[in-house]
Write a structure and sequence with these properties.
Chain lengths: 78, 388
């Protein structure tokens, strides 16, 4: 599985919704799939699984808003 | 002189910012001149009280020395207890200014804006710890960020990295024209909100309540709704002035309000009301607390952890407003609402009890509105001052 798909399936786990796989351009915050708590869980998992440390204030909701965008941001930080 | 408090202030501002506007419209850099304006404006704002002026200077030196030393330290090492110490020292002046009045009649530490400036210092320490601020920023830039006069008295609370990015940006004449237009628009919206609507609510309704209301209960009920509206128009008006002036100076200060009375629920409300403050608490208190607890695996129950985070956030926010009983209860009230909403959200996810459609959306806005107004009623202190 490539990196992007790994990120998206992690998001599907955290949001507990497969819609992120069907529509990877969905705005996670507008759709109510991700909130502050979910974001923290995501950041902890990103560190554990991919060994990428994303500081909390680096996670800007205007940029890290969709599954695709999150995957792009993470790929940049790898 | 109170910022945006009198006509004189606006006239002085217009004179001081005239060169800024001329430079901006020619597409020239103006930040050096704006720093000079900031010094003049601060002198005017704090001219009425020597104590406050001295307190502001001492506070600024304290924060700058602390931030610079921590950045220098962080390049070499990253110990936990040094970080906690640095955070504690950065909020120490604020703590003292809140506690001192209970012990002495003279408050030598407090000054206009200390509550807001503290957020700027503390975030710099935290972002340095996160490795987001690596190099020691030039002293003038750091001072300009902390003391940026349009937002000095009550925010909006800006973020250093955002502010710095905009400071480095080249603004063309065309772009500046748009900034100026938006800035002026916001300032006039501020006049409408603060000096026409807010003033009218207070002058024609709140101060006349004893003639309008027929009973004690009616008095409190009318007060609750009119005070809530007044608070919004007054503070949103002030924010519009602060943001508008920032725009004219080439800095897009963050927004503070986004139609808060149209919130669908309490969580939504905190994404719309006093946003720069609630986002600060979200990013630097709630999320950090949850992150830390999750990593250390001290609290495994997700709901308990989330609720504890909310309780911590809102009690802190309450105390931040002041140590008076009404603020602490206000914080506790919102903590309780967030916990209750958390339960409701989970219940609803499972049972689909509250459907999503236009009717429920409107009903949700109406319920939320009343719940929020009751919160402001607590905040106003009327509940605790009988016969006021």
């Amino acid at each position: 599985m490539d990196f992007k798909n790994e990120v998206i399936s992690l998001l599907a786990e955290i949001c507990q919704d497969d819609v992120v796989k069907e529509n990877p351009d969905i705005d996670l915050f507008d759709a109510g799939l991700l909130d502050s708590f979910g974001t923290v869980e995501l950041l902890v998992q990103i560190e554990e699984r991919f060994d990428i440390l994303v500081p909390i204030t680096e996670f800007d909701r205007d940029v890290w808003n969709t599954p695709n965008n999150i995957a792009i941001q993470l790929a940049d930080m790898k | 002189m109170t910022p945006y408090g009198s006509f004189t202030f606006f006239i002085i501002l217009a004179v001081l910012l005239a060169p800024t506007i001329i430079l901006g419209l020619q597409g020239k850099r103006f930040h050096n001149y704006n720093m000079f304006v900031t010094v003049i404006a601060l002198a005017l704002i704090f001219s009425s009280s020597l104590y406050q002026a001295i307190a502001l200077c001492l506070f600024t030196i304290w924060q700058v020395v602390l931030i610079k030393s921590y950045i220098a330290y962080r390049k070499k090492a990253n110990r936990d207890h040094i970080f906690y110490l640095a955070v504690f020292l950065s909020i120490l002046p604020l703590i003292l200014s809140k506690v001192m009045p209970y012990f002495s009649t003279l408050n030598l530490i407090g000054f206009l804006g200390i509550s807001y400036l503290t957020f700027k210092g503390t975030q710099l320490i935290m972002e340095t710890r996160d490795g987001l601020i690596k190099s020691n920023p030039p002293l003038t830039r750091l001072l300009y960020f902390i003391l940026f006069f349009p937002t000095i008295s009550s925010g909006p609370i800006d973020r250093f990295r955002r502010f710095e990015k905009e400071l480095k940006l080249e603004i063309s004449a065309e772009q500046y024209k748009l900034l100026l237009y938006e800035g002026l628009n916001k300032i006039f919206l501020g006049f409408l909100y603060k000096y026409i609507i807010g003033f009218s609510i207070n002058h024609f309704f709140i101060s006349q309540l004893r003639f309008i209301a027929h009973s004690e209960f009616q008095n409190h009920l009318y007060y609750m709704y009119s005070y809530s509206l007044y608070l919004f128009f007054d503070f949103a008006g002030y924010s519009a002035f602060a943001i508008g002036v920032s725009y004219i100076m080439g800095i897009k200060s963050p927004e503070n309000f986004n139609k808060p009375f149209l919130s669908r629920n309490i969580k939504d409300f905190w994404n719309r009301w006093h946003m720069s403050l609630s986002f600060w608490f979200r990013d630097y208190v709630y999320m950090r607390f949850v992150f830390w607890m999750t990593k250390k695996k001290w609290i495994k129950n997700r709901n308990l952890l989330s609720n504890l985070g909310y309780i911590l956030l809102f009690l802190l926010m309450g105390v931040w407003h002041g140590l008076a009983l009404q603020y602490i209860i206000y914080g506790a009230y919102h903590a309780l609402l967030m916990v209750a909403y958390n339960y409701f959200e989970r219940f609803n996810k499972k049972h689909k009890w509250w459907p999503q459609n236009k009717v429920t959306h409107v009903v949700a806005i109406i319920i939320t509105f009343h719940v929020i107004c009751f919160g402001f009623y607590i905040f106003s202190g009327q509940l605790f001052h009988k016969g006021a």
